[in-house]
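Postdoc handover notes: sequence design on the structure in folder B. Input tokens:
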């Protein structure tokens, strides 16, 4: 008589571990959700065709959500201003994004600081009288009328990178040297003392739109830049809370 075959031994712990390892973690699922939502929003805004790279948009959105989580942004306006100083001044490198309506409100030229570079900004500073632009996240404040006319105060919130903005009077204002005509004559925009200067024919509308507690992000080619507001976990949780 043939000896019956022994039943296979099942290691229930190992089997359970294998199943567990095969399933994605809650954190990875949340990260995937976050990435998908940002890619969807980027697509809906149609900003890739305007030169706004996804990597810059992702950083700007991460900071926006962190600042929103901290209660530093107004609830009345879901606006995000992105300035990409990795692009030359001859290109339109400022976007004002309406995140609620999923539309671009403004896309225009913007000047960088005199000592940050010629056509391309390469050097940045938080120091007084540096005449350079300062990278990072800002929260817009109130308007005032100064030597450049209607202007908007900007509160820099990235320690070590732009927190002297108010003391330096780094503000959003209009300037005659921010125009296509200036580019045609000089091959680049004129430059400010560190302010993100706007075209004269658009500055009133832009200042009116973004004043009073909205987020602005200045991106640039500085490998040393870091920010506590680029915390993806906080951004993910903020986005999840908004969708719950």
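Designed sequence:
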């Amino acid at each position: 008589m043939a000896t019956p075959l022994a039943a296979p031994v099942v290691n229930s712990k190992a089997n359970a571990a294998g199943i567990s390892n095969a399933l994605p973690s809650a954190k990875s699922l949340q990260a995937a959700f976050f990435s998908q939502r940002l890619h969807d929003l980027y697509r809906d805004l149609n900003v890739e065709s305007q030169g706004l790279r996804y990597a810059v948009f992702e950083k700007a959105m991460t900071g926006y959500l962190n600042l929103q989580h901290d209660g530093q942004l107004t609830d009345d306006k879901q606006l995000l201003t992105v300035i990409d100083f990795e692009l030359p001044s001859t290109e339109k490198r400022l976007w004002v994004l309406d995140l609620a309506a999923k539309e671009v409100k403004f896309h225009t030229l913007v000047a960088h600081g005199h000592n940050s570079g010629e056509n391309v900004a390469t050097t940045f500073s938080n120091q007084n009288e540096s005449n350079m632009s300062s990278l990072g996240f800002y929260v817009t404040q109130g308007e005032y009328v100064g030597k450049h006319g209607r202007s908007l105060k900007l509160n820099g919130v990235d320690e070590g990178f732009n927190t002297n903005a108010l003391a330096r009077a780094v503000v959003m204002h209009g300037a005659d040297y921010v125009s296509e005509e200036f580019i045609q004559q000089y091959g680049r925009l004129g430059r400010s003392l560190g302010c993100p200067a706007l075209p004269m024919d658009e500055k009133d509308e832009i200042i009116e739109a973004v004043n009073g507690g909205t987020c602005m992000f200045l991106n640039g080619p500085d490998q040393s830049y870091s920010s506590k507001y680029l915390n993806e976990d906080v951004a993910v949780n903020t986005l999840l809370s908004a969708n719950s």
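Context for whoever picks this up: The two ends are 66 Å apart (CA to CA). Don't rerun without checking with the PI first.
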